[in-house]
Amino acid sequence: GGGVKETLSEIRLGLLRTPREISSKFFYDDRGSALFERICELPEYYPTRVERALLTRFADRIVDRSRADVLVELGSGASTKTRLLLDALARANRLSAYVPFDVNQSFVREVAAGLTAGYPGLRVHGVVGDFMKHLMYIPDGGRRLVIILGGTIGNIQPNRATAFLSEVSDGMSAGEFFLLGTDLIKDADRLEAAYNDAQGVTAEFNLNALRVMNDLLNGDFDLEGFEHRAFYNREEDRIEM
After folding, report:
1. What is the DSSP letter of 210?
2. Around Cβ 137, how many Cβ atoms within 10 Å?
3. How far apart are CA 234 and CA 55, in angstroms?
4. Residue whose C-alpha is closest to residue 81's, from 104, 106, 55
5. Residue 129 DSSP symbol
6. For the chain (length 241 residues), average pLDDT per consecutive 10?
7. What is the distance between the alpha carbons of residues 114 and 142, in angstroms, rounded to a whole number?
């Protein structure tokens, strides 16, 4: 169908670039999504712990400042840290709806089921798609707080990220709020350690993208012919894998 053709074209263009490139969204089949949740619990992977601590400290203030009653999360994953904001909304008696937006359908379904059971009266409107292309499917209504956590914005090339954030802004109404979670530049050794963990989980996650290619497109990538490498690119101020 058109979806497979579009995917094939996107991957082909990426592999023709120098250096070759595969979009980060292709990490997140069921296996890749589960591996990323494991990465978030690794001792070397500090961003999740730090962001969770910041949200614990500031969630009530964020809710008070935004006066939101609808939480929209782009790149929601398992929505683990999101619960800190949902709890703050519930404490303020402002919790109306949550919109998890993720490329992984299984995670969106699981999150919807878990949260509706855990938060009585909460409406969950899941969106399965690529938020670089499908922002128009975010539902209107309520006073929205749109969030992108976990440094996900760093997966997007800077010029495309600027256009994407403009598109997010265009879809928001006056008085709505946007919250971005991103890392600051650290010592290169610390950054590189976070993506080269001793257990090899990030390596497994990285190589899983090739397995996703094989599944999606009946490909023949031999994972034994590749190795994981993650390094800090000082010129671009980013980790590359």
Report:
1. H
2. 13
3. 29
4. 55
5. S
6. 77 92 92 95 96 98 98 93 97 97 94 94 95 94 96 90 96 96 94 97 97 91 96 93 94
7. 22
Decide if 60 contacts 137 (C-beta within 8 A).
no
Type and span of the H or E element at 58: helix 46-66
Buried-exposed string 97-125: b where 16+ CB fall within 10 A, e elsewhere: bbbbbbbbeebbebbbeebeeebeebbbb
Q: Note the pTM of the prediction, 2 decimals.
A: 0.89
Q: How many Cβ atoms sit within 10 Å of the Cβ of residue 141?
A: 12
- Asked if 230 and 239 touch (Cβ cutoff 8 Å), the reply is yes
Q: What is the per-residue pLDDT for 2?
A: 52
CA gap 70, 173 in Å, rounded: 13
Q: What is the DSSP string of 34-49?
A: HHHHHHTTSTT-HHHH
CA 200 to CA 39: how far, in whole Å?
9
Q: Of 86, 77, 73, nearest to 37 (Cα)?
A: 77
Instruction: Write the CB contacts of 220 (distance below 8 Å, at least 6 apart in sequence).
Output: 214
What pLDDT is stored for residue 180 in this prediction? 97
175 phi-psi bin (left φ>0, alpha ψ -120 to 50, beta other): left
Q: Which residue has the tokens 């409107």?
A: 125
pLDDT, position 1: 41
Query: For residue 178, what is the enclosing H or E element?
Result: strand 177-180
Instruction: Name the nearest CA neighbour of 80 among 186, 181, 193.
Output: 181
DSSP state of 177: E
What 3-state class would DSSP assign to 173?
A: coil
Supply the pLDDT for residue 53.
97
